[in-house]
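U., I forgot to send this yesterday:
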Amino acid sequence: MKENELGSKIISAAKWASITEIAAKLVSPITNMILARILVPEAFGVIATVTMITSFSDMFTDSGFQKYLVQHEFKSEKAKHENANVAFWTNFVISMILWFIITLFREKIAILVGSPGLGNVIAIACFQLPLTSFSSIQMALYRRSFDYKSLFLVRMISVCIPFVVTIPLAILGLGYWSMIIGTIAIQISNAIILTIKSKWKPKFFYSKKILVTMFSFSIWSLIEAISIWLTTWVDSFLVGNALDQYYLGLYKTSTSMVNTLMALITSTLIPVLFSTLSRLQDDDQKFNKIFFKFQRVVSIIVFPIGVGVWLYSDLATKILLGSQWIEASGVIGVWAVTSSIQIVFGNFSSTAYMSKGRPKLSLLAQFLHLIILVPVCFISLKYGFWPFIYARSGIRIHLVVVHFIIMNFIVKIKVSEMLKNVLPTIISSLTMGGVGYLLQQIDTGFGWELLSILVCLVVYFGMLFLFKNMKNEMFELLSKFTPKSITK
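Result:
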């Protein structure tokens, strides 16, 4: 693919990914804000348990084939479609087997995750597993070709479904069932629309040779996905067993809201970054240039969000979840700060590994993190919910350090260069945080908080404009207000 053609595709992909994700991520928090005011934390605890199981099973239904289809260079369209068919039928068969196993052992699984009596709930919720196999391959092919415009309609319909299914059912008193039914409705919608719109349609073709080739790559992606799942969910598993559904709901809902807020940025650019770097994996100079450009742009937005949510966590909690969730304020604040650090350094490093076709590096990072994460969570829970929260949030920095070591010595992207790349945003965010803290000492009224937030924004962008390279970056962002600037 020629450089100009690639640049054009990146611009279009980034634009449509931005439009789609911004719209989706603006609607999704609104849905959660409404549901948080209708449902109790225990209901969200049940959903966290169900999601823990379905997300684990989804890894096997995908088998890492999505990343293979995006990252691999095929000799022809025929070869690409043959690989897609093998991936589809493999996913579908695995999903049906997993759904059968989960249904058969549903009560034992419910007890294992600390939720006895939820066996039937888990079995019904896992109906979504075979549904995802109808959409995952199409999504991979769209992303491979940078065709994010075609995914726009699908995503927009899926984000609107909660308003016509989930929320009305919650108002009618169906509790956690409203969210389960809503999720299944979304998967059905995705499966139908993507199957109809996709140029590629599943055919009765299968090749063991292709499966072996795909699996040799995907096995490491699958193992990496399992390690990421453990990193993401082992804490919820321990909380569900050590405490109760209330605290599990409080913890998972709080962290999920922060993740959703951050995903407004990351889910827009990370998929585009992965597709772009995959095409440039053999050109280190261009690879590094695009990597640093994306990282710098994301840091401009993510770092101040992290610091700002930490400073005004009470206000953020009341807006996002309602005053009855004020106990979640401490969780939201500390999680936002550590999330900003993990995104800029950890998530980008992992994307670099995968783009170069080296999933073993990401697996290594997750493994080195897990051997510290599990005992820290287990021990801290013995001292209560809040010691666990601070320990769990703080240990995320350990994963960043692990990524630093791998990037520096194996990928050959120096830590000093990454830090220098985002140093202006770090300095500006810390300055903003200091000013915001001093302003909070003057008054805590709602009007004063709003005024101090405006002052913090002025301080942040004022500091950022003092750095010449960031000044140019900001002018590009402000003039276009789209991710187009990151490809120039």
